[in-house]
Amino acid sequence: MCGIVGLFLKDKSLESDLGEMLAGMLITMTDRGPDSAGIAVYGNSDENMAKITVQATDAGMLGDIDLELSKIIGVNASTRIFGTHAVVEVPGNLINDAKAALKEICGDLRVMSTGESIEIYKEVGLPADVSKMFEIPGRAGTHGIGHTRMATESAVTTLGAHPFSTGMDQCLVHNGSLSNHNSLRRKLRREGIEVQTDNDTEVAAAYLTWQMQNGMSLGAALEAGVADLDGFYTFVVGTRHGFGVLRDPIACKPAVLAETELYVAFGSEYRALVELPGIAGAKVWEPDPATVYFWEH
Fold it and tell me: 252: domain CATH number?
């Protein structure tokens, strides 16, 4: 049992409140998963720049990485540090060089996400503590998704926390379990898709990345997943321009969507949505089984 939330803003006047609303939604879901929590925030971006969010086992490792990285790649890199995570910004055309350089600087750094706008923060602990550590309530953005985890098939670690990101500006959170993730993981690795953990959710994220690299749209990749991903699941997927929702054909995991002129919101339960502005007048429904829902700017 895990808790998922998502918020896609239609009204730009709400963008400064995204983090506060998203954190509140996730904290409401604490009892669905007290082991670890994570949030992906999509903010406004410079199309010439890219962000690499990294996590360190020791926050002290993050102190001078911008200076060391700048020396290696030959241009200035800027860094914002939040607890055990840092967001490193570099010119977009140097993102692969920067990722390689970060491994050279410190092999223990873990890349959480890369892209023009995505930032992923996740750690072991309660949603309230994780939100405070990473200053989530103060974050502005266009949309975001969050997850609070109750571990059932793997250890309680930062690597096992959601969201998982396996492609640029792409991430996925999951409530459920996939039974064929081991065979899919082997196939994806043969196809050159990096999968770092034993978590079934990362396999689902990597599957979508693989399909999209082969020319599918996100919607088509999700539809293909209905046939290829064996198990029960509710997925919420974030991309540069929006977010999508998919439930398995049995749809045994709870899910609620709400839409107003201001936003589209998702929660594992309706109580995650009750504090949102205008929720009393929202269209509220349970997503249909094996049906892709997607909104984008």
Answer: 3.60.20.10
Which of 207, 219, 42, 210 lies closest to 113 in space, CA to CA? 42
Alpha carbon distances (Å) from 237 to 71, 100, 240: 36, 27, 10
| Catalytic residue (one of 2, 106, 171, 252) | 2
Do 80 and 15 have their domain in common?
Answer: no
Q: What residues make up the domain containing 58?
A: 47-116
Torsion of CA 223, 227, 233, 235, to 10 degrees: -20
CA dihedral defined by 195, 30, 170, 124, rounded to 10 degrees?
-40
Distance CA 50, CA 92 (A): 5
Task: Give the distance, in angstroms, between the CA of residue 285 and the centroid of all CA atoms in the same chain.
Answer: 23
* DSSP string covering 59-74: GGGGTTHHHHHHHHHS
- Say whether both 194 and 234 belong to one domain: yes
Respond yes or no: is residue 2 known to be catalytic. Answer: yes
Only one residue has tokens 């500006």, namely 169
Q: What is the pLDDT of residues 197-243, one digit of tens each?
A: 888 999 999 999 999 999 999 889 999 999 999 999 999 999 999 99
pLDDT at residue 194 greater than cutoff 90: no
Q: Which of 116, 140, 163 is a domain's end point?
A: 116
What is the number of other CB atoms lying within 10 angstroms of the CB of residue 155? 12
Model confidence at 157: pLDDT above 80: no
**Same domain for 101 and 25?**
no
CA dihedral angle for residue 156, residue 157, residue 160, residue 161, rounded to 10 degrees = 90
Q: For residue 44, give the 3-state DSSP assignment.
A: coil
